[in-house]
Design brief:
Helix content is about 40%, strand content about 15%. By secondary structure, the chain is an alpha/beta fold. α2 packs parallel to α3 and α3 runs parallel beside α4. It starts with 15 loop residues before the first strand and ends with a helix. Bound molecules: farnesyl diphosphate.
């Protein structure tokens, strides 16, 4: 099989991929189009990437759709993004569900228009029994906000200081029950974390493919997964065998 054949499965498949879908605006600008055309192209690409993840056997996909800071964008762009999210729920929910996608939300729903919030809640309920791919949509999400929210809930629950452990914090995050992301991908060449999964990503492997999100296709994903397969994850420890070499030193 040709090594560039996109039907070839990468050897090592991570359990959980998280993606910062960056570069929609620049993709549109480069084509003389309005920014919202970039977000629409990014949405179509998301559908392709979800299908590729299902095909590759990925269990969890987390996508950064709208951050707590994105409210600061021009009103027209924020409203346009909300329309896109609503359209996706209206038009794609059944198909996503048929493909076995379970939708989950991470972030705060309380600032959203009640009609939109109800649609989101319906989508979560509608897909809750699907198991093929768990799709966490980070919407009105910020990593710091998530940690603040977790601390507030712990205090409300009367958690005592000596009961606070990493495991307990995990249980209070929006991602409770979801394994930490093995890899975090940020498209477009920007080298920042932007308040995304700052607790969960402590030992994630980061990838920065130099393409705008609408151009991050199945082959790009496959190449990124291949690169992941060549990384050595050490979690702050040494490579296997390194201790032995060290103890043999004079
Ligand atoms: C970042 O690109 C992208 C966003 C803030 C929005 C991401 C949203 C989508 C891809 C829509 C699909 C999502 C769902 C859940 C239906 P940017 O606008 O910052 O690009 P730029 O850095 O080039 O300006």
């Amino acid at each position: 099989m040709d090594s560039h054949d996109s039907s070839e499965l990468p050897e090592i498949i991570p359990t959980h991929i998280a993606i910062i879908m960056d570069g929609n605006g620049r993709w549109a600008l480069a084509r003389g189009l309005p920014r919202l055309a970039g977000h629409r192209a990014g949405t179509e690409n998301l559908r392709r990437v979800i299908e590729a993840c299902i095909e590759f056997g990925i269990r969890y996909l987390t996508i950064y759709a709208f951050s707590t800071e994105n409210w600061g964008r021009p009103k027209e762009e924020v409203e346009g993004l909300m329309d896109i999210f609503e359209d996706v729920i209206d038009q794609e929910l059944q198909e996503l569900s048929d493909q076995g996608v379970q939708l989950r939300h991470i972030g705060r729903l309380d600032q959203l228009e009640p009609v939109f919030r109800d649609k989101v809640l319906h989508a979560l309920d509608f897909t809750k029994n699907n198991q093929r791919l768990i799709l966490n949509v980070a919407f009105n999400y910020g990593g710091r906000d998530e940690i603040i929210c977790a601390i507030q809930h712990m205090i409300k629950d009367g958690v005592t200081s000596d009961a606070v452990t990493a495991d307990l914090v995990n249980q209070y995050l929006f991602t409770a029950g979801v394994p930490d992301p093995d890899m975090i991908i940020r498209t477009s060449g920007e080298l920042r974390g932007s308040n995304f999964l700052i607790w969960q990503g402590a030992y994630s492997e980061w990838f920065f493919p130099p393409v705008y999100w609408p151009d991050f296709d199945k082959e790009q994903l496959r190449l990124t997964l291949e690169e992941y397969g060549h990384r050595e994850r050490r979690y702050g420890r040494l490579s296997p065998g390194a201790e032995e070499i060290d103890s043999n030193a004079c």
